[in-house]
Request: fold
Amino acid sequence: MEALPGERELVRRFQAGDASAFVGIMNHYEPYILGLLTRLTGDRSRAEDLCQETFLKALKGLPRFRSDSSLKTWLFRIAHNAVTDAVRASDPSAQSLEDMEEHDRTPQTPHKDPETRLEEAQVRRAVEAAMSRLPQQQREVLHLFYWDELTVAEIAQALRMPEGTVKTLLFRGRQAMRGQVTHLVSEVSR
Amino acid sequence: MTCEEFLRVLDTRTNGEAPPSDWVQHAQECSDCAFALRLERVMRSAPAWAEKPRLSAARRALVLNKASETSYLWSRLLPNLEESALTALAGGGLVALAFYVAPKLWATSVPEGLRRAVAPYAAPVVEGFHTLASPFIPILHQPWGVGLLGLTGFVVLFAAVLSARTLSIRPAWLRPA
Reply:
């Protein structure tokens, strides 16, 4: 993710009463936040609800936001909390995101020589499909790492978890992705 | 290098450093590991090919309208609150200090003649103040009484200062020329 040029200045301007500064912030971060929420909910309409909620919460917090913090990780944390709350509210008996980490849905289908069978676009489609099948925590960490290009430290800050946990989720997520994609490839080539 | 070693290196990478040469060589020899490497590259390039979704126009408008309200409110309200609180704190502190110091100075530093001369005028004022303050004196003997009374005084002063500022009530000598 490219850094938002003049981010601190935009925050300062908003805090000084210039509402147009928020347009710049929203224009830059909206696709990333909405992309993450769409990935996590699997439902564009629900993701838009949560994205709107994220920015409205950001608006409430922005007047007190300290510019020495990272706006990017702060916004991702609000989005993460919004989706976590929504999951809990929609089904209180649902597994927490933490529990989902242990839920391994990686198929163990062996497959020979997948490299030669797929075109680039097919691999991308398989990656997208495989992501939707991962446990939510792994999906979130992989999305933040690959799609939003956050560092491990930034992910840890955004999700309020130790860096070691992020690395573990990244490690398990990659393994699960490989299993899922290989499985999808074998289905396509059948 | 074995496939197991290759995948361990692949799965623990957390930055974009160049892979070791024997690692690349192994990928050329093993199709499964080559696919794993390809998958990693596809995911690394996700920001370039992934969809960049946007909120609907109505939702964007709703958020941005709210931004205007929030920004307007906070930019005007926050400095006003801060300055009113500081004014109330400073004013309250000075008044409290005056009440504490004034009787002592009156007794020790004011010449006897002057005290006698002023007494007929000061007595009704002191008496009136005593009548007003007497209901609050028992509170001072309660635990937290001083703090509670101080806080109440601050809130009253703060509300008064904030109201005056909000309504732009200023004495003539404070108004800009």
About this structure: The mean pLDDT of chain B is 84. Chain B is about 75% helix and 0% strand.
